[in-house]
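pasting for the record
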Amino acid sequence: MPHIRPLSTLAAAVVALACTQGHAEAPVDPASLYEVSTTGTSTQLKTGGQGTFVLTIKSKPGAHVSDEAPLKLELKGAQLSFTQETLALKDSVAKKAEGQSFVDPRFEVPFTATTAGKGTLEARLTFFICTEQLCARQKKTLSVPVEVL
């Protein structure tokens, strides 16, 4: 069985090559580098009442929201009217602390409940999440139900 040895040697070489190929850095999914939250948003109001839409982008360690690339937040809603419908990073209420390189954006946008019924607040967010290796454009659409009494 001398011809079997070369095949097993070849098989071992193929397995070794396959193992070394699998150790390359897998590309990072940019969406895994942050979380977007609407916690704190008013979800129940009386007609004519004031509420607040809250949106926070929380970056994970090693990542940050770019303060050089454009960030855009567009708001619209059924049964709701906003004091401001288009926002940019400059509208964030979160500000850099001394010595801090980047700050996670937080938006607090007032709105008014215009008519009774089940309303919906729609937010379209576009921003760039960055690490030392990448800077990727992200688009998120969020919907928050708001009940107007």
